[in-house]
Amino acid sequence: MSRLAIHGGKKVRTKLFPAYRVIGEEEEKAVVEVLRSGILSKYLGCWADDFYGGPQVQAMEREWAAFYGVKHAISVNSATSALYCAVGAIGTRPGEEIIVSPYTMCASATAPLIYNAVPVFADIEYDYYCLDPEDVERKITEKTKAIITVDILGQPYDAKRIHEIAKKHGLYVIEDNAQGPLAMYQGNYAGTLGDIGIFSLNYHKHIHCGEGGILVTNDDELAERLRLIRNHAEAVVEKKGVSNLNNMIGFNLRMTEIEAAITREQLKKVKWLVEERRRNVTYLEDNLKDIPFLTMPKIREGCEHSYYVHAIKYDEKKTGVAREKFVEALQGELMPIELRETEGVKIGLGYQKPLYHQPIFREKTAYGNTHYPFSETVEYTDEACPVCEKVCNSETIFHELMRPYMTKEDLDDVIEAFHKVADNLDELR
Length: 429
Fold this sequence. Notes:
Elements: H1 25-37, H2 55-68, E1 72-76, H3 79-89, E2 97-100, H4 107-114, E3 118-121, H5 133-138, E4 144-150, H6 159-169, E5 172-176, E6 184-185, E7 188-189, E8 196-200, E9 213-217, H7 220-230, H8 237-240, H9 257-267, H10 270-288, E10 294-295, E11 303-304, E12 310-314, H11 316-319, H12 323-333, E13 347-348, H13 359-362, H14 386-395, E14 396-399, H15 408-423
């Protein structure tokens, strides 16, 4: 008789997993105070004291900078917007190249296109999924302007080697730390390692205000350029006496007072939330390590992971079962998360294809059908990043069932589901 739920057996779990409820009474109180103040936003798109935003925005930026030990924190309406600001602030010109990762969310790779620069994909490290420094250096040309690193899944990038390469070639490093708040590299916070760092406050990140992003830097000039691009730069450069007009077409990428007020309260919780993720992952791994065809994620020496998701490697050769079938069986044993029921069970295949598979790169169609600004010498082929291809095609399993508010009993159900499917592989062959 079949035991697996997908074949008619009894499910391991029949109730929803608890929601990730990081918004509480503190945030509610903060929002009410903003509403009662009557100031929902105080930005002016012209040069005045309010060019830098209202009291909540400015207070949050000071607190964020102090928390992370940096000179400047600049808020925007999303981490995607933060990437756009960063690429513009470093003075990127049309036709220049920016090295990016193929194993991440698409904004890291499309940000160069906003300034008519060309994204060039470098391969990833097999163990850590971050940019491979050796392939980064191979991809550098006389046109290269910067490297956009990604602390993917909460794992810090190889800052020592990437920075050595950047210094050698005179390149900027933009650190996309949307997935890694409180990840640590050699005693330093991820997000503070590059020339510009980026954090996300999107609703499914470690902490959030619905939508939002933060840029950090220790460079005074870059900080001011970031603030200008955020808020209609072209309207204020003359009165502010700005002399470097490169990329001073500005946007409206401003954060509201309500979002800033929520973020101030969220920042107080982030240490506990990340520590809960680490504790839950440790418990899961201690109870899954005996499954011979699963490999738990490695952590770079001298680093601390912050686990945006828990990424497990799966060995199809040992099981004779396709990763897709194994994941389908796992999903059949478990249930969705409260408030996210429509998303299904939060166990999946991770990033299922490298970014350069997307039509915008394959067909070079950023602006109309002109293929501009893509270079004829830059091709987006499978051969360019073989490690990423391997990881995407058959090896990774992502899950989110290690977030705070998961009880020991909840985690035990996840563990039982993995073991149940592992013990009944014959049903999947």
